[in-house]
Amino acid sequence: SFPDFNPEIFFERSPLQLQKIFNDPDAPLLNRGISASYPPGSVFKLITAMAGLMSGKIGLSTTYHCPGNMRIGRRIFGCWDTHGTQNIFQAITHSCDVFFYHTALAVGPQNLYEYAVKFGLGRYTGIDLPGEVNGFIPSPASRKAKRNQGWFDGDTANFAIGQGEVLVTPLQAVRLMSVFANGGYLVTPYIVKSIDGKDVSSNRRRIQPVPVNRDYINIVYRALRGPVAEPGGTASILNIAKVAIAGKTGTAQASGGQPHSWFVGFFPYPNPKFAICVLLEHGGSSHYACMITKKIIERMIEENLL
Hints:
alpha+beta, two-stranded antiparallel sheet, 15% strand
């Protein structure tokens, strides 16, 4: 989490230094990994894909044509490119918005909400750190209850691609990705294993199966190699020789500046041991999150951690 701070200033108790860190507009005391939530953008398309597969609304043979946009109601919803005909593998590889607009409209917003919750979004992860927030997953019911407002197809389209009211923490995003890496299990992350030789992690090692078909988990797992390895993949910069990486990019529109830049993935493929999330707050294109991911993994290779 950046900007960071030197914890020694709290021992030194210098009023000037403390005032400076408390008043810093960049909020260095905020642990952005667990205490800040952001629109996930296209990372959320994994939820839309699983909701479509589980409901039977899409399958391996399902295709949608992407002309670069789609009319929904009275509005035109754009895609970031013109992709032509796309199946689920191609749509994840190219991050085609139109494919996921169609999928979400077929599935419906309540199903999107329910599958997001099943994959741990909008809920605390239970990590052993203070200050965790739970993010937010919208639904027609919550909007009606809180604002007495209706839900429209345009809201579903935004929901499908992780925009609108959707908010997740970076830790929730990497936990979501780990479900595909580990074959369908939602894990409780923890930091501290033992204190003075006593294991204190046993009550935190909760591993629960996500109630979905493992065949569909495997479909998305295989599709996640595409953004890195396939021509035109949105994370092709990560197609490096020494380790095979899989994952999903996101460029999430955000108020107050440039989009947030995401990469969430796992490696080495096909037998992953690590899951990773890089988020650049108002970082622009997801390309920049991929660049930092590449530097991290190359450093891991240099230090023989793989």
